[in-house]
Each structure stands twice: as structure tokens, then as C-alpha cells.
Design a protein that fits this description.
Length: about 350
Amino acid sequence: MRVLISGFGTVGQGFAEVMILRKDFFIERYGKEISIVCVMDSSTYVSNESGLSPNELLERKKTTGKVGTETYQDSLKVMDSVDYDLLIEVSPTDIKTGGVGLKNIRHALESGKDVITVNKGPLALKFCELVSLAKKNNCKFRFEGSVGGAMPIINLCRESLVGENISSMRGILNGTCNFILSKMDNGQSFEQALKEAQQMGYAETDPTNDIEGYDAACKVVILANSVFRKSVTFSDVNITGISSVTSEAIALAASHNMVIRLIGEVSDDKLEVAPRLIPKGHPLSITGTLNAAQVVTDLAGPITVSGRGAGRIETASAILSDLVSIMDDRKERGGKCRNQ
Ligand code: HSE
């Protein structure tokens, strides 16, 4: 499998680390390791058709701040110059335009390449277009890490729960907001808690996307389209963030044995992100940066998952799961795989 990585920030570097950690796993399962043939960051790239060393990539990024040895203007020209099978798109999220991630994903799918992404912007804005493009070009398109980081939710619903009728899903889909609300439970102010979340690196580059609920809304869109087979986009979600949640409201909730949590909800008639009262002890009353999701199914009943919603290695673990699925599919079919 020849992989092109677009984006070498936190998640891209995490993926390179995971490739080092799982080298033996790939050799044992498929007889060879993953070959990273090209990596781009925002201004540089490096490519080698015989494969790049993840250790060298990480070292160069650490020492020079750049992954590449060459600069580029047009990412599509770089992609066209490389012989690859799979694009891993992990460039920064742009939820206004989809950014370079959208451009790269479209181009890879149009060129018949499989794609794995954790980039929420392209998915929240152009989900249906990208899935249709993947189908038309007979490509695999997977995005487990875009919702809940390490917490398995999309593949859980689409694969393990495939025979269920899922009527609704409610979840804590933004770790930064959960961290802030948990700190406020302990008496900290909103401003103090946000500052701490930024220092710890949980918040998005622009924390407005977290606290106003936009990041959670992107995830609601991805779940609605991928699990509930809706055709919706970011503008279809009713969004209320946590910036107006006061310490008084938190204290009042506590006096009724409740906490306030930012909940994303998808059901037949609802697409919403809003602060909600949750009884203490309920699976969605979790604290800290954890994400959680509760899925209501007809046969199995309610199923709840929880896990780390962000982080370098954690998000890369979701990419690993998508990668293994694509490779298993290819192995079964003895070559190029069919789309979902
Ligand atoms: N800023 C996001 C969060 C990162 O706090 O959950 C993961 O999407």
C-alpha cells in the first residue's frame, strides 16, 4: 500500500509514530510494511517511490519545522507527480470552505485513489458529493477519526451494528467544551477553563469553533450522513454553544444533582447541538476531555461508547483502523477494492 499523507501536524505526525509502532503488525498481517511515498505539509513536501522513513520524517519536522525538502505552490501538482494508492488527508480543518483538504480529497477520488481523512471541514460541507465521487470512481472513503477521535462510533454503527435500526444518537462530541464545563462544575470560571484548554492543546486553532458548538455540529453532520443516511450539511444543524452557560446555571443544575453538558443529537426529526441538563451518574455526565456517544438501537437497545476525542496517537489509532479495513478488503479481493 503506497500512502500519500497530506498534512503533517499533530495527527500526521501521530500517524507516522503509529506506523513505527505497528511495523511488525503490518509485516505479519500483509507480508510488508506500509510504504509512505509522499508527505506534504502546508508549504513543503518530500517524496520517494521506494518509501520514506517515518523516523526521518518526524526528525526533520522536529528540527526544521518542515516535513519536506522541496517547496510547492499547488498540492494537486505534487499529488499528480506521485504514484500512490491511498491519500491520508489530515491537513487543518477549515469549516468555512473545506480548505485545501477538500481540494485534495476531491482530486484523489477523481484520480481513483482511496482516501482516509479526519478532516471535518470537507465532510461537514460536502459529504454527499464526496461519497458520490468515491462511489463513481470505485474508491474507498473512510473517516472514523473525524468524530470522537479514538472513540469508535462511525464504523461501530456501520459495521458492528449494521443490522440494527438506529433511531437516535446523543453524544458529547467536543472535548474542549466538556473540559470547560467539567472545570466549571468545580468552581472555575469559563475564561480560566478555556485558557487551560488552549494551553493543553485541546481547543481548535480558533476556539470559537469549539465553544460556539461549530466543531460538534460538524460531527453531528458527519454522523447524520454516514450513520443515518441523511443528506444534510452544516447549515442544517441547530447550534447553541456554551459561551452563555454561566456559573450560576452550573450551580443551579448541581443543586438538582445534574450537570450541564454540550450534547450533539441526531434523530429522524432532530439535528442539534446545545447545552443540556444531564443527571449525575448518567453515561453522558462524563468529565474532562472524554467524548461519549449513546446510540439507541431496536434490537440491542442503548449502546454507549466513550473514549479520547482528540490527541496525536489517539486520532491516529482511528486512521489505523480505517487503513486495516481497506487493506483487508483489498486482500480479500486480491487487488483493488469496491466502495461501500
Ligand atoms: N477541538 C476538538 C475537541 C478536537 O475539543 O474535541 C477534536 O475534534
